[in-house]
Amino acid sequence: MKGLGRSFESLIPTELIDEEFDPTAVEDKKESQLKELKLSEIFRDEEQPRREFDQAALEALAASIKEHGVLQPIVVTKEEGKYKIVAGERRWRASKIAGLDKIPAIIRTLDSQNRLELSIIENAQREDLNAIELATAYAKLSAQFNLSPEDIAVKVGKSEQSIHNTMRLLNLPDDVKKIMVKEKLTEGVMRPLVSRDEATIKKVLPKIINEGWTARKVERYFAEHKKKSSATAIKHGEYLKAENALTTKYGVSVKITGRTLSFKCKSGAELEKLIKLLK
Question: Catalytic residue positions?
């Protein structure tokens, strides 16, 4: 994705779609059939533009598959008695490396695949979807229809950056996503929490809910917290030189904490010597 540094796939968890937040889950079950297929019955789509796959990444995925199995089914359509891959070629290739004989697959007809894609796009354009449902719809378009963020943006009439920002919400812990939906919290107020650790999220989330914090207030909180952390680090750096100089001068451990200067002596003799030096 342009201008975002790391790849889109590395930032957004598109591999596993949570049905709880999938606005087209019911329709998908009507249109799809989940089965285990022999790898030998499956073939790649020669019209897919992607032809190069990083071997080291495939080996890593194969190792994961050996340990945990294939967590997300591939998507295929039936053609002339075999199955053509729509999405999930990496998983198919890695499963071969892992020595698997079969792989879980969602089987759709070409018509049902097209209908479902249109349904997801229509749902993604609805105004009553919460942000997590919207993010899940985008993730499904990416994972099951091989659509890039740019493709999704064009189809739903939004900016590529907007697609990326919304999908980043899927990186929130599962319980936080549920709270976000239950409390009807906005994308704007939750987005600053995406890159935070769980302890920080649990500290800030009650303030958002109980005190009605706005997106601006959440951002200001983190900005001020960052300033304080930076100021503390600078202050500590300045005091470090003084601590070292005083330790050398008096021969005992010296610590500066806030406005307190403390000496730590290892023995009574050291303490007596220090007292004499300070007189």
Answer: 89
